[in-house]
Amino acid sequence: MKNKIIFRKEYLLQLKKIIAFDKKTGKTIWISDKVYPQHFYPLSIKDYCNVVKKAVLNGFQDIPILSISVKDYPYCDFNCKDCLACLSREWAVNNSNIKYPIIPIDIYKNVLTEISNYSKNLGFTGVRYEICGEGNPDLYSKREEIIRFAVEKCDMNVVYVSTGSRISETLLDILVKYASCIRISFPGIGEDAYEFYSSQRNEKVFRYNDALVLLERLTARRKRYKKEDELMIGVRTCIRPLNEGHYKEFIKTIGALGVDSFQAVRVLTPDYSKHKTENISQKVIIELLELKEIHKQLGICSFQIPNNLEKIYNDRSLREEKKFSKCWSSHVSPILYGTNLISCALWDKIMDKNYHYGILEGNKNEVSKVFKSTKSKSIDKNCPLNCNECCAYSDNRTMDDLYKVLRAYDDVKNIDFYFEY
Q: CA 353 to CA 345: how far, in whole Å?
């Protein structure tokens, strides 16, 4: 099937496999079901496969940035249980570890321009620009301006991740007009779970029903602007004990509101060793597996739960036999924390400047210079060689598997990719 409508949600969200084939012979040389459509949207695994092909033909250093995850406001109005960002956020704002914890708007614009130009020069337009904290991105005072700039001047695809607790009417309008994906995070589902896990200490508390009203406003505005075919609105929550028994009603509610996607993930924490024996209840496992079978009947287009539903907390440990030859994500999906370009999203890598490519100021061609530097070569060598855990394991494994297949193939130029549904 050919991709006729680039941003058609159903086309990208419902694919099951990616297949590499030889255009001359029609021979299939590789198949993968590691497609994770919510994870890549509005890009797809095909964009990443084309980058692997480019790396085989031209070298690993000459591949574009496909997605940049930006952490431009390290302060939050929530105090969530097991917050993944607490350690690195505190580190970032103390002792000038990050040059611009809150990026000045002019520098921000120049940096996004350089990132976009870097990828365009390497043949890729439409960098996925994910705005995701480590704090609450709603609170960045220039948010509307930088979103418009990223889309209009840099041809970027905006993905916005937030609790939505401080989305103003103006920001809501800008998001619906300009974003490709808006994902609202729920600390818990149900009033009690939301209040407990968000652990807010503010005078103005954002509650579970407030988040549902926000989803309703987002989907209504999307309909008004006739963006239902291309703007994905999603929800994410962690699989936590107080959510038990509430998943089906929650899915029915958000499905009726017009939400496209749902993700339930295991809890991530720097203190995994303290919690690794905590199990997900059998009742929750049954509930989630049943919903996986019927989610489309409840109005949800894409439904994602972990493959392993045994443990509550996620183990990212990376054994020697699981390591890949290259850290693809460090090049195609780096982190921009302030203006520090970082190879990995893990809190220990964020706090270790050995894994920082450098500080961007928005100077001409500086992204290319950063990736060709001695520091970059050192990172390429040590990552994943010295990695004990990985936040992008699935992406790296899929890309590395394809890389090995293509390197052994005689005529890589004739390889193309298509989706299976």
A: 13
Beta strand segments in 230-371, E: 232-238, 261-265, 302-304, 335-337, 340-342, 356-359
For residues 230 and 5, what is the distance between their CA atoms, to the nearest angstrom?
9
Residue 270 has pLDDT above 70, yes or no: no
Helix H or strand E encompassing 184: strand 179-186
**Coil vs helix vs strand at 264:** strand
What is the DSSP-derived secondary structure letter of residue 409?
-
Beta bridge partners of residue 86, listed in sequence order: none
Query: CA separation (Å) from 100 to 28, 70, 361?
Result: 48, 12, 10
Give the span between the Cα atoms of 370 and 420, in whole angstroms. 38
Q: 42 preceded by cis ω (within 30°)? A: yes
Q: Which amino acid is at 45?
A: I
Q: Which amino acid is at 2?
A: K
Summarize pLDDT for 391-417 with one digit per residue, the tens: 899 999 999 999 999 999 999 999 999
Q: In whole angstroms, give the CA distance from residue 179 to residue 173.
A: 10
CA distance 201 to 229: 38
Instruction: In whole angstroms, give the CA distance from residue 325 to residue 163.
Output: 36
What tokens were used for 70? 């930006």
Tell me the pLDDT tens digit for each residue of 119-139: 999 999 999 999 997 899 999
What is the chain's alpha carbon radius of gyration, rounded to the nearest angstrom? 21
The rounded distance, in Å, linking the Cα atoms of 259 and 245 is 20
Do the strands 17-22 and 28-32 form a parallel or antiparallel pair, or are they unpaired?
antiparallel
d(CA 48, CA 266): 25
Peptide bond into 384 cis (omega under 30): yes
Give the integer Cα–Cα distance in Å for 367 and 373.
10
Look up residue 269 and give its two tokens: 């924490």
Which residue do the tokens 């924490």 mark? 269
Per-residue CA distances from 415 to 21, 299, 401, 404, 409 (Å): 5, 37, 15, 14, 9
